[in-house]
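Section 5: illustrative case.
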């Protein structure tokens, strides 16, 4: 005997649960971007995969799904920007600390004594 098709209530609840999981992932990414991760330890994110047999998205959940997608895209942009800035800062710090840019490092002598 095959599985029963999901009822409208089951279908809506499954989609709502899937959107909850996506929303929590976006909130965690937003917290990392904003610096909240410095104040508390965040658990590593696990990749999200859609639950099986969801069926089409219920129309009343479309605005929520669109809002989550917009937040995901903004978080991805902010992360890319933060990574670029971080790489630049790390490269500059490496040059300052090691003097590996090839230029001789200045030496200061206090001759006022």
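Designed sequence:
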């Amino acid at each position: 005997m095959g599985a029963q098709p999901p009822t409208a209530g089951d279908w809506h609840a499954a989609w709502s649960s899937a959107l909850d999981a996506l929303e929590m992932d976006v909130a965690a990414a937003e917290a990392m971007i904003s610096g909240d991760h410095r104040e508390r330890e965040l658990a590593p994110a696990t990749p999200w995969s859609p639950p099986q047999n969801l069926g089409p998205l219920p129309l009343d959940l479309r605005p929520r799904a669109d809002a989550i997608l917009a937040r995901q895209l903004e978080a991805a942009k902010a992360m890319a920007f933060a990574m670029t800035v971080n790489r630049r800062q790390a490269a500059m710090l490496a040059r300052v600390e090691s003097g590996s840019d090839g230029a001789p490092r200045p030496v200061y002598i206090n001759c006022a004594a």
